[in-house]
Specification:
This protein is of the alpha/beta class. It has one domain: Rossmann fold (3-Layer(aba) Sandwich). The chain has a 6-stranded mixed beta sheet, sandwiched between helices. A 3-stranded antiparallel beta sheet has the order 1-9-8. The chain binds inosinic acid and magnesium ion. Magnesium ion (MG) binds next to strand 5. Magnesium ion binds next to strand 5.
Length: 175
């Protein structure tokens, strides 16, 4: 059982809301005249996507991908597996991937390569958080909410062992 004291607030719900506003403005501006296909990466991005899409006044479509990476509970080991791929045809579409966090970059880079093979018209990445000091594989980020320090974070959809996804703010989880 993790004690409340181990949770330290990192990004408040107000700061998150402002970042979502800003990202939605940037995406609306860049996708005028397009019918983008947003692809959410489960499960961590579900809260972010729910907030973001309600601010996107675009004829968008939404699908989800579920990926698993083997390794220690808290990090990728480099082997990624598609649990549920994207069912919507991607060929010729303007695809925007929505992530909760880019850490080592292994998972996101795998997904971008997987989608690239399906020949989208364009492929971009929006992530709520980025932990650049942990990067092992380069990942081009087109829309970024927050750069976060080298700490384990939870809340706003992001979990630790499936817990804390329901917290409205983002916290660091101290050992
Ligand atoms: P990657 O290391 O960039 O491949 O990230 C793999 C996955 O690890 C992410 O999609 C998250 O699910 C998880 N992850 C990485 N850092 C954190 C964190 O700080 N908190 C919770 N999950 C994380
Ligand atoms: Mg993720």
């Amino acid at each position: 059982m993790v004690l409340q004291q181990q949770l330290k607030i990192l990004i408040s719900r107000d700061e998150i809301a402002k970042a979502v506003d800003r990202l939605a403005r940037e995406i609306r501006r860049d996708y005028q005249g397009s019918q983008p296909l947003l692809i959410g990466v489960l499960k961590g991005s579900f809260v972010f996507i729910a907030d973001l899409v309600r601010q996107l006044d675009l004829p968008l479509e939404l699908d989800f991908a579920n990926l698993a990476s083997y390794g220690a509970a808290r990090e990728s080991c480099g082997k990624v597996r598609v649990i549920q791929g994207v069912k919507t045809p991607v060929k010729g579409r303007d695809v925007l991937v929505i992530e909760d966090i880019v850490d080592t970059g292994i998972t996101t880079s795998f997904l971008l390569d997987y989608l690239k093979k399906k020949k989208p018209a364009s492929l971009k990445l929006c992530t709520l958080t980025d932990k650049p000091c942990r990067r092992r594989v380069p990942v081009p980020i087109d829309y970024l909410g927050f750069t976060v320090p080298n700490k384990f974070i939870v809340g706003y959809g992001i979990d630790c062992g499936e817990k804390f996804r329901n917290l409205p703010d983002i916290y660091t989880l101290e050992e």
